Amino acid sequence: MLMKTITQTENLDQVDGIVVVFSCSDSESFNSCLDLLDYFKFDCKPTLKTPTLVIGNKTDLQHLRVVGTVEARKCVLKYPGCSFEECSAAASDDNVEVIFRSFIKKTLVESDTRVIEQNGRKSSIATVGSPKVVRAHFKRRFSMFGRDRNGSN
Ligand SMILES: Nc1nc2c(ncn2[C@@H]2O[C@H](COP(=O)(O)OP(=O)(O)OP(=O)(O)O)[C@@H](O)[C@H]2O)c(=O)[nH]1
């Protein structure tokens, strides 16, 4: 299903971030994840710098775990621009939202930085702006995530 989504994506070099999810209880899914990282980071050169988050899901199934945290992190961090987290989408108290919010924040900063670099300007508002400017920037960019389905906050 994931591969289908990828082949349909024509402008991979224009994406702001990539999230790859595997199951900690399925070594095949981890191998597929590494195949995807090979594709993104080595075959698909324009996305080399694109922030990429790899998530080991299903940590609630500890008794079925076959992919170790240390091993997975070590493999993933070898790829440029990659970070690694683990979570459980099934455990209601898990930090899925925190992980995604933090990654989105990172992609927005890096995407703004890339745009500014492409436009040939010297500084980045996202990384060297005053705290006030940065706060206003994120408030604007995150306002879309704080709304419920009716559009109210
Ligand atoms: N125990 C547990 N089950 C999960 C978790 N996340 C997803 N699942 C279950 O795993 C199954 C597959 O989840 P999907 O959301 O369909 O994910 P998918 O990537 O399309 O899954 P695949 O069928 O493996 O390709 C479903 O039965 C989910 O309920 C998790 O964190 N813990």
Automatic annotation (TrEMBL):
Keywords: Hydrolase. Coiled coil: none annotated. This is small monomeric GTPase. It catalyses: GTP + H2O = GDP + phosphate + H(+). Gene3D superfamilies: P-loop containing nucleotide triphosphate hydrolases. It is an enzyme of class 3 (hydrolase). The keyword Hydrolase applies. It comes from the Eukaryota. Signal peptide: none annotated. Its EC number is 3.6.5.2. Pfam families: Ras. The keyword Cytoplasm does not apply. Belongs to the small GTPase superfamily. Ras family. One of its GO terms (molecular function) is G protein activity. InterPro entries: P-loop_NTPase, Ras-related_GTPase, Small_GTPase. SUPFAM superfamilies: P-loop containing nucleoside triphosphate hydrolases.
